[in-house]
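**User:** My hope is that you can spare some time for a protein that puzzles me. As I understand it, each token names a local backbone shape. I would be glad if you read both lines and explained how they fit together. The protein I mean follows directly.
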Amino acid sequence: MRIAVNTRFLLPDKLEGLGWYTHALLRRMVLNHPEDQFYFFFDRPFDPAYLYAKNVTPIVLFPPARHPVLWYAWFEWAVPRALRRCEADVFFSPDCYLSLTTSVPTVMTVHDLIPLQHPEQVPWWSRDYYRYFIPRYIRRADRVITVSQYTRNAVLEAIPDVDPGKIATVYNGCRSIFQSLSESDRQQVCDAFSEGAPYFFYSGAIHPRKNIPRLIRAFDALKKRTGAPVKLLLAGRFAWETGAVKNAFQQAEFKQDIHFLGYVSEQDLARLTAGALALVNVSLSEGFGLPLVEAMYCDTPVLCSNTSALPEVAGDNCAAGRPAFRASNIGGVRELFFQWQALRRLSLAKGRERREVFSWENAAEQVYQQFRFL
């Protein structure tokens, strides 16, 4: 089989959510299926490390696709030509974009429907593009993969004329680097990142949907009430419209105990996750919630809101799904912090059981089998 793949998020030293998803699936597919030929479509110079075996052919397509006009040019002009040249049997797009002008059978992953559900939470310059094209992409795809049942239901609700039979849910997995640490190693992480103090940890982009201002205010309230010698570490790049986050930080009484780490390496991310008192995710809307799975594999307790896909991923091993722990109010987020110690033992035991559901090996094979439907 000749499999063409949109790999534009395989960026050298800059992998984030979509990039990690693409990398985790493709590395396994390529190695597990040497009988197939893979064509990776990049939109800029690539790192040879992403060419996982000899059955991968890299193709750089112009223009770099990072703006609506360039998205259209890349997917509707460059991609169809490349698909014809390599005589692809199937086109796989792991980032919810595809080409409407190709006849090549297409499999597309939908991670969430945030642009349709909460258009105010995406940059203004891309809203019209998303609103127009996402429904058309989903209708055009021959097979649609969603990363949670929540996202699958959101697709069917937002686009009711889509055939539910072509939608398959395939959970994400977890990279092997996410493992538990010994007490001495945990202390080394604290020494390196939090001045030796225990810390709560957030991992993800810094923007409005992630509910970071409430997280900061809740942490500040914890410090005021208890005086606990803990810190809050946030790893991730600042995205757009982060003024509310910066204001909450400036107004925090204990801002010296809140540290924005920016983008961190894969190794540091794993160590930070494993060294934390708990991973905290109070996002208002998530299509999956990969940091929760990473925390489970690190034996780190999970404190998360009960919104969107987070309860589905967390299961019953944490505060998710409990009505008192809502992310939409400051009290609910504050209670997450206050209750974490009581939840710790339950979270660890249930997390070890729950994490077995999430495997990149299984995910890669399930996605690959979608190609066989075409």
